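Standup, Tuesday
Yesterday: got the pipeline producing structure tokens again.
Today: sanity-check two examples.
Blockers: none.

Example 1:
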Amino acid sequence: SPNPSDGKLTIKTNNDLVTKYIKIYNFTGKEEFQDSFISKDHSLSLNLSPGVYFLELFYNGQKGHKKIVIQ
């Protein structure tokens, strides 16, 4: 189960050459945030209302999902 967050997240990847795209959706599927980065690790400071969100990470033709809880 996801660890509750205060909005500060670090995305860790194993590739620092390709652009990565992040999208965060609320529980109704509305996009609340998007960002892109190239470095391996990327820190976010999200200003979202408390609740459950879904993070999608795209890079190198792959897509990953993670549930996040903002409290």
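Example 2:
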Amino acid sequence: LEVSSEGVLVLDGERRIIGANRRAEVLLGAESGHLHGREAEGLFPADDALTPTLRRAVDGAPLVTASYRRA
């Protein structure tokens, strides 16, 4: 995952980040290791289209691919 051009976040059942590749850190403007333990929803605006997708995925809905591009 470290060589992926896509940002990847791994979440636990409480929607907290338990893993992130370097590209995710770069896209989210975080220093190495600083995403671990943070709530994923807090990284995106409340009205962001990705937030409901995060909720569904953690709640056990089928895996979907979502893209997020920072403005």
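Quick observation on example 2: The two ends are 24 Å apart (CA to CA). Residues 23 and 44 are 16 Å apart (CA to CA).
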